Give the backbone structure.
Amino acid sequence: MTAAAEYPFPPEWPGPPDRPDRPGQPGEPGPPGQPEPGEPRWPGRPGPSPGTPQRPYRPPGPQPSPLMAPGHAWIDSGDWQGRLRERLLEQRVVMAHGHLDDTAATLLCAQLLTLDADSADRATPIRLHLQSLTADLQAALTVMDAIDTIGVPLHALARGHIAGPALGVLAAAGRRITYPNAGFLLSEPETGFTGTATSLATRQRQLESMLDAFYFRLADVTGHEVDAIRDDARRGRFLNAHEAVAYGLVQQVAN
């Protein structure tokens, strides 16, 4: 077969008349090395190599912005907890939730002391939100000591279930408010000691000393005798929001 039979049109042929434009940009040339629809393949023009997947041609144009919408970015951000904590600190709001151990107590003390140091207006209070909080006895006493050193007013707001030594954090605040559905459980802290008889005796004396400091603080706030509060903790006395006001643990129920 001759070249004329295989390619019936000469190379200088301008193309079939009234060639329809491709979808997309009208009249725009296709990608290099690819013939237009209906155009014969001339000798010397490279064709697609066997086994190479063909990608659809996309003409150049504006690309979508890589930036996400603010609401979507706020939800999907990997550090959304840190960003949210910063926003709350800007409003002088600190939140404590879950279980308060030594690590959480260190972070909570750092936030309170930072807000106290940055307070230009010493009359503006810090709002400490306690949300379903439990605590180790040592961690609770650590936060109580930090609250005692703050020079600005501290308002504590209780939500959910506040139990055990976490009540000492609530009692250390100057203003104590509870939400209507909050609950308060007076209970002894859970402890577990291992070691020699001498070390166990030492830990027992240390625990009794910390418990005395905890019960004395509750007695000072509520007006009850220390022995009465100790007995309530041993029995696991539960108080709802209005009972906590009558007990003296909080001062009012939030509207």
